[in-house]
Amino acid sequence: MAAPSEVRTCEDFAEFQELLRVMRTIDDRIVHELNTTLPTASFAGKVDAHQTCKELYQSLREAHASREKIIKSCIAQTSNVVKTLREEREKAQDDVALLKQLRQEQTKLKLMQSELNVEEVVNDRSWKVFNERCRIYYKPPKSQ
Questions:
Q1: Is 80 exceeded by the pLDDT of residue 73?
Q2: Could you tell me the superkingdom of the organism this chain comes from (predicted)?
Q3: What are the pLDDT digits (tens) for 8-41?
Q4: Do residues 122 and 27 make contact, with C-beta atoms less than 8 angstroms apart?
């Protein structure tokens, strides 16, 4: 059931961006999340900071992995469409509508590829904030 919606999402770039925006909510709210869940010195005994940081770490990893998977899947799908349109364009050099569609798909592909760069910046910012606040309480495995 996830596959058809992913396909629809890849076809419409605005929908693709909206999906990523919604999925980046955890990254947008990480500072708030850390401020509300990690204890200050006066409340250190009332909250399990290790468990809280561990759960947040898992949430961040899952969110980053799922977004990267969707972005790369859409890039691959759009690349295939561009390849097919190029092949059709070779056969029909005079087809203006085909050329227009090819250009639109190429533009969409470039925009999707730029989302990978945006994703890297968002992830780096989230990990920086996470490490600043949780380094005392939780040491993630070295695979990060």
A1: yes
A2: Eukaryota
A3: 688 999 999 999 999 999 898 888 888 888 766 6
A4: yes
Residue pair 137/52 in contact (Cβ under 8 Å)? The answer is yes
Residues 6+ positions from 29 with CB-CB distance below 8 Å: none
d(CA 37, CA 58): 15
What global pTM score does this model have?
A: 0.82
Which residue reads 């990060």 in tokens? 144
- Please name the residue that has the structure tokens 């401020």: 35
CB atoms within 10 A of CB 108: 20
CB of 127 closer than 8 Å to CB of 53: no
Q: For 1-5, 95-99, 130-134, which range has the lowest pLDDT when averaged over its residues?
A: 1-5
DSSP the chain: -HHHHHHHHHH-HHHHHHHHHHHTHHHHTHHHHHHHHS--GGGTTTS-HHHHHHHHHHHHHHHHHHHHHHHHHHHHHHHHHHHHHHHHHHH-TT-HHHHHHHHHHHHHHHHHHHHHHHHHHHHHHHHHHHHHHHTTT----TT-
